[in-house]
Design brief:
The complex is a heterodimer of chains A (223) and B (227). Chain A is built from 8 helices and no strands. With 223 residues, chain A is mainly α. Chain A has a domain of 156 residues: MetI-like (MetI-like fold, Orthogonal Bundle), CATH 1.10.3720.10. The longest helix of chain A has 34 residues. Chain B has one domain: Orthogonal Bundle (MetI-like fold), CATH 1.10.3720. In chain B, 81% of the residues lie in helices and 0% in strands. Chain B starts with a helix and ends with a helix. Classes of the chains: A mainly alpha (223), B mainly alpha (227).
Chain lengths: 223, 227
């Protein structure tokens, strides 16, 4: 039997990891767009908030942020619920904490990616759009955003590769991801080496496939 | 929120910070020493370059946590490892953490340096050859100084990633900064205070590291960029 019948369990974990990573990527891209727009905006408050956000995130390890959001968030939510007259215990599940943490962290890195990409779009493009009578939002949606995405692609691909590996830390808070499944199988069978090698190979498969995919995208959208 | 408990246990954090710095220093120094020769090989051609590529590809393509578990828990699967003279080392969480951090950072640093060597201005190398320098002299006087300086910005990012990466040591029971915060949270259930304090420590360490690298760049990189 391959891997003592634990292969389906590992694959299930791999799916969880992939789902977690994709959800986090989506959140990170949204946060990154907001962050980049804030950093490039005229409002000093928005710039200040975005700057603090990116500096703080890049100064603190992801594991600390995960534990802070998971354990701290638990206390925070329950204190809030009690204050609002809701006596039952509210539980933050590891999935929510994981997605929130990883989206929050990579949102900061995406902010820098998108900021650079926005600045790479010639300002004449935006001005021409405005001269045509488009609103700020229309210019963003029709002109700057599509052009910016091409410049952002290498940065997005780099961050994605780091992100998918970062998801391994959610095993610390007990989410049933690839890493946790590997640990469980390793514990049951007492063959940790075989199972962690299998886990490593699955991660390697994810990163290799991602790299191939992004290379094709890059060629297709080449500037 | 009360930081009294944190303040009472500030010694725990300071010891943790010390261990974090120790792990960081060991992994960066050994990583640097290993990455320079590997990068020279990697920047070349032939099977040796491909062998180094395989190593960096595997270590950059998998999470450091998996690498740490493979070394710390995985190796114990084999009877001959447990019987060997090196077993006291491989059963120590500290040694396994150091080993996996070194292997990981070496892989990233090798690729950074190799990329930097490949993108050196051709003219510098041609000029050195024209002066009659042999391959070793060329490497020592021209290639390495130029490449390492130009790699500084990318390497500073790797160093910061490594500082954050050392927090994984707490997963294998080591009492680094993260380990200190986790044990304080476990015994007193004060997640906010415990982890925010650790975050503050890391922030200070990160900013110090950034400042250090900025000074190194000002001293070693700027002079060769300005014309």
């Amino acid at each position: 039997m391959i891997l003592h019948g634990f292969l389906p369990s590992l694959l299930e974990g791999a799916l969880t990891t992939l789902g977690l990573a994709l959800s986090s990527l989506l959140g990170a891209c949204l946060l990154g767009l907001l962050g980049a727009l804030a950093k490039l905006s005229r409002s000093r408050v928005a710039r200040g908030i975005a700057q603090t956000y990116t500096t703080l995130i890049r100064g603190v390890p992801d594991l600390i942020l995960l534990l802070l959001i998971y354990f701290g968030g638990q206390v925070g939510v329950n204190t809030l619920a009690l204050a609002l007259g809701y006596p039952d215990y509210v539980e933050i599940n590891p999935w929510t904490a994981g997605v929130l943490t990883i989206a929050f962290i990579f949102g900061a890195y995406m902010t820098e990616v998108f900021r650079g990409a926005f600045m790479a779009v010639p300002s004449g493009q935006r001005e021409a759009g405005l001269a045509f009578g488009m609103t700020q939002f229309q210019v963003l949606r029709r002109i700057t955003l599509p052009q910016m995405l091409r410049h952002a692609l290498p940065g997005i691909s780099n961050n994605w590769l780091v992100l998918i590996k970062s998801t391994a830390i959610v095993s610390v808070i007990g989410l049933q991801d690839l890493m946790t499944r590997g640990q469980q199988a390793a514990g049951t069978t007492r063959e940790p080496f075989s199972f962690f090698i299998a886990v490593a190979l699955i991660y390697l498969g994810f990163t290799s496939a991602s790299e191939l995919l992004f290379n094709r995208l890059r060629k297709r959208w080449a500037l | 929120m009360s930081f009294d408990v944190v303040w009472e246990n500030i010694g725990l954090y300071l010891q943790g910070a010390l261990l974090t710095l120790e792990l960081l220093a060991i992994s960066l120094l050994l990583g640097l020493a290993l990455a320079v020769p590997l990068a020279v090989i990697r920047a070349g051609r032939g099977w040796a370059s491909r062998a180094v590529w395989l190593y960096t590809y595997v270590f950059r393509g998998t999470p450091m946590l998996v690498q740490l578990f493979l070394i710390y828990y995985g190796l114990a699967q084999f009877e001959w490892v447990r019987q060997s003279a090196a077993w006291p080392l491989f059963s120590s969480a500290w040694f396994c953490a150091c080993l996996s951090f070194v292997l990981n950072t070496t892989a990233y640093t090798t690729e950074i340096f190799a990329g930097s060597i490949r993108s050196l201005p051709k003219g510098e190398i041609e000029a050195a050859r024209a002066m009659g320098m042999g391959p070793l002299t060329l490497l020592r006087r021209i290639v390495l100084p130029g490449a390492l300086r130009r790699a500084l910005p990318a390497y500073s990012n790797e160093a910061i990633f490594m500082l954050h990466g050392t927090s994984l040591a707490s997963v294998v029971t080591l009492m680094d900064l993260t380990g200190a915060a986790r044990s304080l949270n476990a015994s007193n259930y004060i997640p906010f205070e415990a982890f925010i304090t650790a975050a503050g420590f890391y922030l200070v360490l990160t900013l110090t590291l950034v400042g250090l690298f900025n000074r190194m760049e000002a001293r070693w990189l700027k002079p060769i960029l300005q014309r």
